[in-house]
Amino acid sequence: MKILITTEWYSPVINGVVTSIVNLKKELEKLGHEVRVLTLSDEAKSYVKDDVTYISSLGVGKIYPGARVTLFKNYKYLQQLIDWRPDVIHSQCEFSTFRLAKHLAKCLRIPIIHTYHTVYEDYTHYFSPNQKWGKAMVAIFSRKVLKNATYVIAPTEKVSNLLQDYGVKQPIKVIPTGIDLSSYQQFKTDQTRNTIRKQLNIPEQDNLLIFVGRLAKEKNLEEILSYFSQIDNKNMSLLIVGDGPQRQHLEKYAKKLNIENKVIFTGMVPPKDIPSYYRTADVFVSASNSETQGLTYIEALASGLPALCRKDPCLESVVENGVNGWLFETFREFEHYMKNIFEEQTVYKELSANAEKTAYDNYSSVAFAKNIEDTYYDAISLYNHPKKDIVYFNHSGINQ
């Protein structure tokens, strides 16, 4: 099968969507499929590198940090994909590249599968001063986009229920995003742990909490910093791995709380090094409510870290209270669960073992790719009708 994946972001950009796509592409190729990627270039120039087509784009960071758009004038590169003749398109973003996916699908008479990664109503502060109006706009936008898909893939039941509330009529399949977990087994030595702690001036005896992700408003890191400042943290440090628009604000906030000596901001870390940072820590923490699934939660569990996270529907099947971590709603719960985690070494070891088991049993990239492959075949079967001639672009941009 020939599969075209369309996405607004791709390597070397680092985020959960890109991680998901990279893992999916690799596993689909292991299954014997041809996979190409259509994405946006980070400059006003289109080009092809290996099996990735980069379409020229413009930055529109005022709408959302890192956002880009294309004006869709790259017919030569789109024609190359048409000539390749994919069997199915798997779109991963709802904006410029979805528009390209829709045109290509129409030309080739093939189905679009769409994965809905982002709960946009959690990001309305970027484009609407009114939360209610922002949510209504998201519902209308989602219905309009997803009506073009044969299947919609939701990473969790939370997202599936949300899309149904929006009035989306397309069939929705819940398929948890898979992760290549092999690298998280390679950093289990004390040497790795001690080396990074020494580099970051973290005392060996400290219990170390870690957050990994983009430093943005929707991640709600102020709450983690506030809670951390209120507990007895003499023998505890907090490691924040990642970068983003809120980094400077968060550093100032940590200073205001008088915890700047116990909170370490690493900035951006290369993806290949992330597993070793997890292994340096003892507990994964997050207060985000903006996740659709949260790949960093699964990475942390795979690294043997119990998770202490704000309660959220997307985590109900990921973090089980007292099994591999806890979900909190208040500071008192955060403090209580933190004490439980570190109270006895045997308790911690059991939580750690269960964390690894949860990740490897339920969220491997191999199982994910097989479920996605089945969905492609279902979509092609549903879409299967006598093929008409392929539609080509002329240079004026009018289909012929």
From TrEMBL:
Q: What is the lineage of its organism?
A: Bacteria, Bacillati, Bacillota, Bacilli, Bacillales
Give the SUPFAM superfamilies listed for this entry.
UDP-Glycosyltransferase/glycogen phosphorylase
Q: Give start and end of each Glycosyltransferase subfamily 4-like N-terminal domain.
A: 14-182
What Gene3D superfamilies does the database record attribute to this sequence?
Answer: Glycogen Phosphorylase B
Q: Which GO terms describe its molecular function?
A: hexosyltransferase activity
Q: What is this protein called?
A: Glycosyltransferase family 4 protein
One Pfam family this sequence matches: Glycos_transf_1
Glycosyl transferase family domain location: 193-357
Leader sequence residues: none
Organism listed in the record:
Gracilibacillus oryzae
Q: Print the keywords alphabetically.
A: Transferase
Which superkingdom?
Answer: Bacteria
PANTHER family, sorted: SULFOQUINOVOSYL TRANSFERASE SQD2
